[in-house]
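Journal club prep — side note

Before the paper discussion, L.F. wants everyone to see what a predicted structure for a comparable chain looks like in token form. Sequence:
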Amino acid sequence: MSIPSTSQHQGRFIAVVGPSGAGKDSVMAGLCAARPDLHRVHRTITRPAQEGDAEDEPYEAVSDATFARRAERGDFILHWSAHGLRYGIPASVQSLIAGGQDVLANLSRGALTEAGERFETLVVLHVTAAPEILAKRLNARGREQGAALARRLSRSAPPLPKGLPIIEIDNSGTLQASVSDALAALYPERG
């Protein structure tokens, strides 16, 4: 499957997926630092804002009722539920993509099929890491412990939908290497 390239006319919607602890947000931050023209989408999430969240992933925290009103109003081009929370991608990304800008968003693999229908230029960046690395990172994060952490680590992820352009990045090593690999795959003409 070939990866859609950036054109003068339309940018790409780059959906970043992977298990918790794979380092998706770190890879995304590294990509944005290396490519200031890359727009990082701030999702809307029905998760209360927590100290340190802005460092991990900038997002807009809203109540369930507010999210439902905004979804009904059409404020989101894409929205889904996962792990008891609701997530939304603002409809404003359409104008960025139409203007030729690549956008980068943390997505659930369960939303990929719909994203493929909504975005003609969808590219999936699948970030993974070795199981022992995932366990170490999730433990350090401290959001879940004991049985809850064990359940998260034991969940098997459904396969990625077939037919989508997918870039695989193993983030078990250094972040710099992972970001370099992602840049080379996304922007081979500059590599």
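L.F.'s comment for the group: The chain has a mean pLDDT of 86. Keep this in mind when we get to the figures.
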